[in-house]
Give the backbone structure.
Amino acid sequence: MKDITKDDIQSNIPLTTAIKTQWLDEFIAFGPCTVESIEQMEQTAEALVKNGVRYLRGGAFKPLTFPYRNERMYELRLEGVEILKHIKKQYDLKIVSEVTDVSTIDDVIDTFDVLQIGSRNMYNYELLKEVAQSNKPVLLKRHFGASLRDFLGAAEYILSGGNDKVILCERGISVANTHSLTSRFIADIQVIPIIKKYTGLPIVIDPSHATFDSTIVPDMLYAGAAAGADGFIIEAHPTPHTAAVDRQNHISLQSIPELLHKYNGIKEIIDT
Ligand code: PEP
Ligand code: MN
């Protein structure tokens, strides 16, 4: 890790982010965007256990672009938390799930093992201060409009609040020409080595939300691994075409073994 220089300080890259802690060995998470049913989560959990994956993702609370919910696009909220609680017990998996509001933290804290801060909430400093009070790891997703300085500033809220278990997550940024057919967001691959150069925090990649396209999720995962990512979070579903949210970017459970095989191969080369 590079020492933070005077120039870095002047440009306000926060100092606490530079402290390297080795608390995380590997972060690999798969699962649906949204918790839909016990059956859906059991099928997903079984695939993860079979492939030696330890982290299961799934949103009970979903911040969606439009306020409308219907039988095709929905969130289960507290019912989803109950499903996650059951799955956690049955499969001994670590649950990664989004916390959207300070008022719901008490309802989820015993069930969620990694508190996910969604990209939209990266700037919600009251929420960041609240998760800093917990002793749970926090997956901090980068807002799609955030500079590195803003991203690290958000991390600093959690770190300086007393929680040093922050995992940064690059999930795609919005630049000119995004929201087009091929790229709603752009995976900022080069931020990965920069974060490793200037901070001691783990940085993982989310190629699902960066691409919104399941056919190129593997490519961006491999690019992230080659750039030095410390892990990833990917949306996977037993039947991707029926997913309640983000059906266009879910990969199938069957594609997990090949993905892991290639990812591990790249990591092995990069880590030597
Ligand atoms: C998610 O991971 O469920 C999600 C909503 O992602 P983001 O906050 O990055 O849009
Ligand atoms: Mn999603």
About this structure: The chain has one domain: 19-271. The chain has ten helices and nine strands. The chain has a mean pLDDT of 93.
